Amino acid sequence: MTHRRMLAVLLATSALLTGCGYTTRSSLDTKYHTVFVSAFYDKSKEYDLQAPLTNALTRKFIVDGRLKVVPQDDADLTLEGVILDYKLKGLTFDQKDDVTQFLMVITAGARLTDQKTGKVLWEEPLMSGETSMYTRAAGQSSDRLRGNAETFLPAVRSFQTAEENRAASEALEQLASDIFYRTIEPW
Predict the structure, then answer these.
(1) Which of 38, 41, 88, 134 could form a disulfide with 102, with the two C-beta atoms 3.0–4.6 Å apart?
(2) Domain 31-184, what architecture?
(3) What pLDDT sits at residue 4?
(4) What is the pTM of this model?
């Protein structure tokens, strides 16, 4: 075997043995075992966003299992937040300039606190969940595979159309995922 080939084999072997640094473990400090998920305060002008977001977050922790959801007095961590805004932005329009597709954006702020010390472990003043939806003017449906929003997240029921209710559920599910992963993987 040539010197170059031997060097290449050694480098490849060392790369395989050392790995790429990926792990399935959480980077959250191992001293934390429990979390209290506070009901999110709703400052938006829309009704019925608070419970679906709080329920989605709670469900994510229960399914994941790395942090057990417990009452506040028993928790190592407290997760709390506020829903700040709900917006629809026109994406596509027809010949009459009617909106045929909207982008829905729900924004929130969240904070994770060590219950024993009161130290804020992370705080994100602005996070968002978003999705798109068609209007009646489009003559189309947004019915499509929407991940687990359709299966697990109860539909928001405060909007005039089923399309908007489903889209709000999907945006809240995405927002809950972002908050959950920010908690579990705080790097």
Answers:
(1) 88
(2) 2-Layer Sandwich (3.30)
(3) 65
(4) 0.76
